[in-house]
Amino acid sequence: MFVDMPLPQLREYLPDRAEPADFDGFWDRTLAEARDHDLVPVFASVPSEVSTADVYDVTFAGFGGHPIKGWLLVPRHVAGPVPCVVEYQGYGGGRGLPIDWLLWPSVGYAVFVMDSRGQGAGGWRRGDTADPFPGTGPQTPGVMTSGIHDPDAYYYRRLYTDAVRAVEAARSHPRVSAVAVAGASQGGAIALAVSALAPGLACALIDVPFMCHIRHATEITGEHPYAELAAYCRAFKDQVEHVFGTLAYFDGVNFAARASTPALFSAGLQDGITPPSTVFAAYNHYAGEKDIRVYPYNGHEGGESAHTMEKIVRARKSLG
C-alpha cells in the first residue's frame, strides 16, 4: 500500500530544516582532521575469476587515519584512464566480493567499492573493516545510536568522512579519470552527504536515501533502522532533544541544501523503510541540478533493473 503523502504533495514538500549554527564549521574541521593523516592508498592486484576487469584490493586511511578496505575494478580492455563510480553500502552490508560489482565495469567504467567500517555481518554481504573508535557509550543494536551523545563521537561522522576519503583514494589511481558517487538506502545517504562534501564530482546517483528528515522519519515509520532511534529514545526519555540535535549534523536535508553535484534520485511510494516524504524532503532541498524517478508500486527495492538502466543513462551523460 502507499505509505505516505500523495505524489503531488510530495513534489511540493519542503519542510523546514533543523540546522546547527556550526554545521559547516563542524564538517570543515572534521575533514581537515582526517586530512592530517596521509591517505596512503594501497591498490594490491589480486587474482580473480573475473575476466573482464582488473581487480585491486584497496586500503586507504579514513577518519582518524583508520584503515578502510575497498575494491577497485577497472575494465580490462579499455585503454587509458576511465571514469569511476564510487559505490557505498546499504545498512549492515560490507564490500562483499569482487564478483558482486561487475555492473559498472560491464558498461566501461571503473568501480571503487568502499567497505563500511563496523558493518558487514548482517548476513547478506560481508565486510572487512573494523571501527576502532572508543568510548561510544550505551547504544541499541546496530550503529544508529553509536556515539549519539556527541556529534564528534557519532558513528556517521566517521562513515561520511571515510566516504569523502574514498573519493580521494579513487582519484589517486592512475587508471581513474572523472568520479561519480552512488548508493542505495544507507549508501544513498552517504552519496548525498559526499555530493555536498567532495567538490568536483561528475554526478551523484542517490537511491531511496536513508538518514533524511530523520526526526520526521521516526514519527511515521516503525521499520528498522529508524526504529533503533525510537528504542533509544524510549530508554533515554530525557535525551530526546539532544539525540536529534546530534542527528542534525548528519541529516541529508542539510547536505542537500549545500550540494552542487548533478544528481539523480529515486523513491518508491510503498517504501516503509525510507518513507517517500523523507526522500522528497532531501530532493526538494537539493541545491544542484537534479532529477528523480518515482516508482509508485515499489518499496525499498526502488526501481530495480529498470532504474539501473536509468542510472547508466545518467552516468553516460555525466561521465561520457
TrEMBL record:
Name assigned to this protein: Acetylxylan esterase
Gene Ontology BP annotations: polysaccharide metabolic process
Matching InterPro entries: AB_hydrolase_fold, AXE1_dom, CE7
PANTHER family attached to this UniProt entry: CEPHALOSPORIN-C DEACETYLASE
Binding site for substrate: 91
Domain Acetyl xylan esterase: 2-308
Origin: domain of life: Bacteria
GO MF entries: carboxylic ester hydrolase activity
Annotated active site: 185, 271, 300
